[in-house]
# Entry
Amino acid sequence: MNNSVGNTARLLGAALRALLVLTVITGVLYPLAVTGVAQGLFSHQANGSELKDSTGKVVGSSLIGQTYNLPLKKGEETPAPDLKWFQPRPSNGLGANSVNTQYKLILSGATNRSGEDGAEHDPETGRAHCPAEPEEGTLCAQVLAAKAAVVKDNSVPGYTVKDVPADAVTSSGSGLDPHISPAYAQLQVHRVAEKNGLPVGKVERLVAEHTEGRTLGFMGEPRVNVLELNVALRELTR
# Structure
């Protein structure tokens, strides 16, 4: 009996010592080491990839998209876009029942709708296409409404929008994509130039300067970070 109690006590003691040692190693020393390396070698990324303006004020993270809207007016459910700024991808990825329809950073996600939601099929080719008047609430209806808004907002005197890239009318998988395609950025150049009283060529150069190529030359697609672009735009308009 005494041997059994003694063995149990020794096992409990060994378990507690192992727990203490592993807690110190994995719960204290390892996190401190990782944090130290991250702060020493990658401090910008470790602190959230914060982006600052020329005054040193943090204006956001280069990893998270933002909206650029006018103040919400009485009777409006969603605010209108502030058209003097470059606009990001649509941010209604989670749908009308989400608390994150405007990048509020509480939740994120995609619509999970099929690419053929609201579409019709050609009886001869079998290909899907959006009808002229799709059912309300479908992906087709959202895309067509977004396309009409993009054409309307960006068609200014002397420039009419013809081709609308996909990222201008669809949200990303997370709903928080900070980037747009160079094509969508170029589409907005004339409107941004007019709203800010800037030469079109100057705004085009700004977009070109903030266009990133493929990662390592072959991964992903060329892209433009909207927050970084708008921070640079702000400097031009001051």
The chain has two domains: 2-44, 50-237.
